[in-house]
Amino acid sequence: MVSISACRTLHDWFERDGRNHLQLHYCPLHCGIAENEGVDADVRARVQNPGAVRRENGGVYPVSFSYARSCITENALDEWRQNASDSSVEYWGRFHLRHRAFRTIRHTGPFPLKRLGGRPELAARFIRCVTAHAPTGHYRDRFRPQHAEPTLCTLHTGRPAYHTREHVLFKCDKYVRRYRHSSIEDFLQSLDPFYDIEQFLRDNPLAFSFDDAPRDH
Fold first, then answer.
1. Residues near 112 by Cβ (< 8 Å), separated by ≥ 6?
2. 109/106 Cα distance (integer angstroms)
C-alpha cells in the first residue's frame, strides 16, 4: 500500500464514490489470532525449508501468488548458485574470467551497471572483456571464420600481433595501464580484478569496443 501506483489507485477509487472507504485494523503479534498465526507459520516454514510447500493431512495448503512467485524465484536462484559454484566450463564458458568478483548472482538489480556508475556503454565493454566476447581477432576466428575479417592488431609499435583479450589487457602499448599484471593467471590473483578492469576501461574509452576492432590497412 505504500507504492505511488497503489496510492493513485486508491485515490481514484475514493473519489468515485463517497461510500468507498478503507479500514485499517491493528493486529497484535503472537496472541492467538488464527489468521496471524497462519502467516507466522508460513514464514517460519519458508525460512526453515526454502522452496518447500506446507502440507496438512496429505493435502497442499493454498498459497498466494506472491508466495508462489517467491518460491519459484528462490528455487531458480538456488539452482543458479549451484551451477555457478560448480565452475563448469559448460556453464561459464572456456574463456570467462573465473573470479568471485565476477560471479555476483542476482536476478534483479543493476549489478554490474551500478558499480560502473550507471554507464551502459562501460558495462557493455566490461562484460565483453570478462566473457571474451569482445570484437577481437580471436572472437572473429571463433565465431565468424566464414567472414574472413581482420584478426591482427596494428595499433602498437612493432610487427602486427594476434588481437586477443590478453593482447589488449597486457601487451599492446596503445593502451594505458595502472596495474602490473602480465597474464590472466596473474590478473586473477588480484583481490579485486573488477576494479582493475573498470579502471583500464575508463582510461581507454575504445578498448573492447567495435571502434577498436582490427581493420584492414
1. 104, 123, 126, 127, 194
2. 7
Cell triple for residue 42? 508460513
Contact 84, 99 (CB under 8 A): no
Closest CA to 91 of 79, 101, 76: 79
One DSSP character per residue, 143-179 reads: H-GGG----EE-SSSSS-EE--HHIIIII-TTS---S
* C-alpha cell read off for 184: 590472466
Model pLDDT for residues 34-78, shown as the tens digit of each residue: 877 877 777 777 666 655 555 555 555 566 677 778 788 888 878
Q: What is the enclosing helix (H) or strand (E) of 60?
A: strand 59-60
Query: To which residue does cell 579485486 refer?
Result: 192
Break the chain down into helix, strand, coil percent, rounded to 5. 50, 5, 50
Q: What is the pLDDT of residue 153?
A: 92
* DSSP SS3 for 94: coil
Helix axes 120-131, 193-203, angle to 10 degrees: 120
Q: In which residue ranges of the chain is pLDDT below 70?
A: 1-3, 46-64, 87-88, 103-111, 217
What DSSP string describes 31-59? SS-HHHHHHHHHHHHHHHSTT---EETTE
Largest Cα separation within the chain, whole Å, is 83
144: CB partners within 8 A, 6+ apart: none
